[in-house]
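Late entry, written up from scratch paper. The run itself happened at the end of the previous shift, but nothing got recorded in the book at the time, so transcribing now.
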Amino acid sequence: MFSGKKVLITAGPTYEPIDPVRFIGNHSTGKMGFALARSLAEQGAEVFLVAGPTSLSLQHPRVHVTTIMTADEMFAACQSKAKETDVWIFAAAVADYKPKDIAASKIKKSDASFTIELVKNVDIAATLGKQKRLDQFAVGFALETDQELENARGKLLRKNLDMVVLNSLRDPGAGFKHDTNKITIVKPTTVEEYELKAKDEVAQDILESIKAEWACLQKK
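Output as recorded:
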């Protein structure tokens, strides 16, 4: 099903600068997104991988990597490819907020505390979801600590996604900084639970689930 298709994938964290040496970020390594990109390319897809700061690399003739730093840069890169791609997989851990103002030089330590005013980043999946065509398929990721299914279902509807891959930080070996992951795939009418597996194996499970759901949508 993926042979000849074009797929947009986001991976890794975003870093939102505070000053020239400090930033707001998270612990995402990008491993899940890179595993998906590799598997899709091996199945014949042309992959556009938009990657935040990560130590990972991927060399494949059908994988085109764009490296970015901030959420705004990731959004711009995704927007440039959204219309021409068949599948969108938003696996990146995008920072929800960014500093309103970025200091031009390093902030010196002076008072016992200081305050940074934050503003919301663009919600990439939600914004592109408003533009999604019926022939396109969109996958979101959710990393939750409580009310996992409720929050994943909310994201599915709110962002016009076709499925959400849910991770819980309550599960040992899942989430950031691991070579393994334990996922639950949430779809409009079903919930699929999987055991803890290596991320390459998880990528295969996700792709098989996409195939099944996409095939059903194409029949409607």
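The longest strand covers residues 137-144.
(Scratch paper discarded after transcription.)
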